[in-house]
Amino acid sequence: MKKSLLHINIFLCLLLLLNPSITAGEENQNILLMEELSIKVMPEFAYHPNDVKKEDPPLLIGYQGTMRNKSEQTQKGQIEIPLPVDDKNFRIGYVADYSSDLSKVYEIEYLLDQEKGTISWTTSEEIQPNDVYKFVIEFYIDTISVEKEKKTVSYQFKSFTEVGLFNVSFVEPLKAKKVVLEPAIEKKSNHAEEIGVHSYFFQGLKAGEEKSFTLSYEREETTPTFELMEKQEQQPLDTLDSEKSPAIFSIAAVSGIGLIAAGAFAFFMIRKREKI
C-alpha cells in the first residue's frame, strides 16, 4: 500500500525590527530559543470551516511553540515557518500568539508565501528579556491514505533547530478500530487518563534530527469526531459566528483549549463513558 508521507522541515527566522543594530544573521540565531514544541495530529477530527467538498477524510495538524528571548534586549519581529503548502488541499485554520502573561490570545494577520512555502507574521507584543513567546498554528490537509476501511497517517518531522522539549500526539477518531501506532509507545510514557490519545515525548531534540510515525486504523464511520461529539453532547454550535469559528479550534498555550480543547475535553469524557 502506498502511504502518504508528510514532510515538514521547519525553519524559524526572527527579523529584528526594534533593534536595527543587530542583523538577522548569525548573531540573532540564538536570540529566540525553542524551549518546547508540541504537535497534535488529528485524523478525521474536523473539516475546515470553509470546506464545501467533503470527499476525503481530513487531517488536522496543530503546532504549539514556546520560545524564549535569550538576549538582554526587548525584541519584536517577524517569525517565518515553512508549512506543507503543496500537500493535497492544504488550508490554514488558525494562527495566533499570546500575551506575555498568557491572559490574551491574538489572532494573527499572517502572510502565506506559496512560492517559498512559508507562513510569516509579526509578533503581537514585545518580548522582554528572558520572557517567553508562545504561538499556535493549525492547518488542514487531505493526506490520509485510504484502502477501503483502513486509514493510514504517515508523519515525519525533521527538527529545524535544537528543541528543549518535543512531543507529538496522535488522537484517534471516534469509532476507530484496530488502531496501530508505530513505533509502539511504552505504557508509562502515555497519558493514562487520555484514552485514545497517543503521545511521544522527547527531550533534547537536535537540529536536523528526524522522527517518523505511522498511525493506522479501521473506521467505517465517515462523520468527523467533532460532529459526533456535538451530537452526543447535544451542544450544537449554531449560535456561533461562522466567520469566527476557527478561533474555537485554536490550541491554547497553557491549558490546551481550542480545537484540541473544544474537542479534547468532551472527547476524553466520551471515551471514558465508552469504557464504562
Give the SSE map.
Blueprint: E1 5-9, E2 15-16, E3 32-43, E4 59-69, E5 77-82, E6 91-98, E7 105-107, E8 111-113, E9 118-122, E10 132-141, E11 145-147, E12 150-158, E13 163-171, E14 177-182, E15 197-205, E16 210-218, H1 225-233, H2 259-275
What's this, in brief?
Helix content is 9%, strand content 40%. With 276 residues, it is mainly beta. The protein has a single domain, classed as Immunoglobulin-like.
Write up what this structure looks like.
The chain has 276 residues and is mainly β. Helix content is 9%, strand content 40%. The strands form 3 sheets. Strands 7-6-10-4-3-13-15 form a 7-stranded mixed β-sheet, with no helix packed on it. Strands 1, 11, 12, 14 and 16 form a 5-stranded mixed β-sheet that branches. The longest helix has 17 residues, at 259-275.
List keywords for this structure.
Immunoglobulin-like; 2 helices; about 10% helix; seven-stranded mixed beta sheet; about 280 residues; mainly beta; five-stranded mixed beta sheet; disordered C terminus
